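R.M. (postdoc): so does anyone remember the format we settled on? I'll just put the structure tokens first.
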């Protein structure tokens, strides 16, 4: 978590907290896990927003793989096809915050995951796949200073 917290500061200018401890003393994730995080823009006095993230093996979600393949096709590959092909885990960010009032927090979490895991983001509504840069651009359009 310390590296994720540091990356949250540098990549998306956010404060990040993991809400629960992992059961494994080494911090290893089980095959299937749900994690709660709080996020808020650096320097923002508002309460942090709680975002839920689920992760599981890619081979357990063929529909997600198919959606990622369609999203890659929408942009003509652009290197994202290689990222999707080598992915072994899916990290899904719940679209709506669990608590707190910042609707941008799920996108900020997706941006952070893209930066930390060097992974693409497949938007839930479909369409083009994007990476950290695309996520940051979308956040900035919503008023989140990155």
């Amino acid at each position: 978590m310390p590296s994720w917290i540091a990356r949250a500061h540098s990549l998306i200018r956010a404060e990040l907290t993991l809400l629960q401890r992992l059961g494994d003393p080494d911090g290893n994730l089980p095959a299937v896990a749900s994690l709660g995080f709080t996020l808020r823009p650096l320097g923002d006095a508002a309460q942090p927003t709680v975002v839920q993230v689920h992760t599981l093996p890619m081979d357990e979600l063929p529909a997600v793989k198919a959606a990622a393949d369609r999203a890659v096709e929408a942009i003509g590959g652009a290197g994202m096809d290689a990222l999707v092909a080598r992915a072994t885990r899916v990290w899904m960010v719940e679209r709506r915050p669990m608590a707190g009032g910042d609707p941008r927090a799920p996108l900020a979490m997706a941006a952070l995951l893209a930066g930390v895991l060097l992974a693409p983001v497949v938007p839930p509504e479909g369409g083009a796949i994007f990476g950290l840069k695309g996520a940051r651009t979308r956040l900035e359009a919503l008023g989140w200073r990155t």
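R.M.: ...and that's the designed sequence above, right after the tokens. Also worth knowing: The first helix runs from residue 2 to 12. Strands lie at 14-18, 33-41, 49-57, 89-93.
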